Amino acid sequence: MKIKDLLTSAAGVFMPRTCSVCGKPLDGDEKFLCRKCLMNIPRTHYEEINFNPFEQIMAGKVPIEHCASYFFYQKGDPYASILHDLKYRNMPTLGRWLSERAARDMKDSHFFDDIDVIVPVPLHYTKLASRGYNQSQYLAQGIAKATGLPVTKALKALHEHSTQTHKDAAERLKSTQGMYGASKRHVEELRGKHILIVDDVVTTGSTLLACATALKDAIPGVKISLFTLAAAQLE
Ligand SMILES: [Zn+2]
What is the whole-number distance in angstroms between the Cα of residue 73 and the centre of ligand 1? Predict the structure, then answer.
């Protein structure tokens, strides 16, 4: 780790002093993002769109009720730095803060109305040990704070994730099959429930598909919806 990253991450434990998107210093009452970047966040509004692009990529694979993402990002655009900060710069509380805000922004859409429980996409324990936290757990907590829904760690990562960056959609799908399992002690309490699986981003949907399949296979009668903080804008 470079000295600069080390200092940034040490500062991030308390409160980052600059906007995660534009890098400008924050006002006293601004948190993580400046007012301007927060106002201009590229919302997907997927929660208001029937058969939105996220639902389209999941279609025909495993039955999913609804899918939503808060904002679009493209590799290298300033808003992608939110995801980088969340995952690699020791800023999980940024995720909790922004997902709480997302859930409040989405309230009128009734996306969360029928959900019974929130389940974060898990990290394999080796990854959890090196990163120190699971960013999806923090995202789940933010949604829980806004909606009052409970969070249950009903999924486990059975294998270590290999890097997905250079794989195409078919390769990703193959590499994520069987990667997740349902935690046995949660099977009974989740029977017939509507579960919201939460992750940081959706690109091909292969991770979420593997998680949804694991829950559907293990728990009778569950319904699944999906939420990610961000959605990759491919074009
Ligand atoms: Zn800004």
Answer: 15
In this structure, which amino acid lies at residue 57? I
Q: At 23, list the tokens.
A: 């890098």
- Residue 70 belongs to some domain of the structure: yes
- Residues of the domain holding 105: 43-232
Per-residue pLDDT of the chain (235 residues; tens, 9 = 90+): 556 555 555 555 555 589 999 999 999 899 999 999 999 999 999 999 999 999 999 999 999 999 999 999 998 899 999 999 999 999 999 999 999 999 999 999 999 999 999 999 999 989 999 999 999 999 999 999 999 999 999 999 998 766 555 666 666 666 677 889 999 999 999 999 999 999 999 999 999 999 999 999 999 999 999 999 999 986 5
Report if residue 228 sits inside a domain.
yes
Question: Could you tell me if residue 32 is inside a domain?
Answer: no
Q: Is 10 a member of any domain?
A: no
| Whole-number Å distance between alpha carbons of 50 and 121 | 24
On whether the CB atoms of residues 95 and 230 are closer than 8 A, the answer is: no
Q: How far is the CA of 77 from the centre of ligand 1 (A)?
A: 13
